[in-house]
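@channel sequence for tomorrow's demo:
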Amino acid sequence: MSAPDIPTPPGLSLDDLDEPPASVGSAKMEADGTLKLFFRTETADGTIGEALTVVKPGEKHYDSIVAHLGGIRPGQGKPIPPFPPPEVDPDSV
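structure tokens (generated this afternoon):
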């Protein structure tokens, strides 16, 4: 017996957009420096994706996230600008 054919929503990349979104979510820095990143996206067909990521000071990408936000202070909230597309090594594809 084969698996049912379940349609998947069409993918969306920044290349598909006429203009990239101004924000992909919001960030808040807690009193101890922990970053709470709330991401949200919606496809053209109305599919919604949401995620919460928590990054503590000293974790691998912490400093680059703070830099991407243009700096952030404890208690402050900011919109998250879109991240640049990842660089792909053509030899790995």
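heads up for whoever presents: Helices lie at 62-68.
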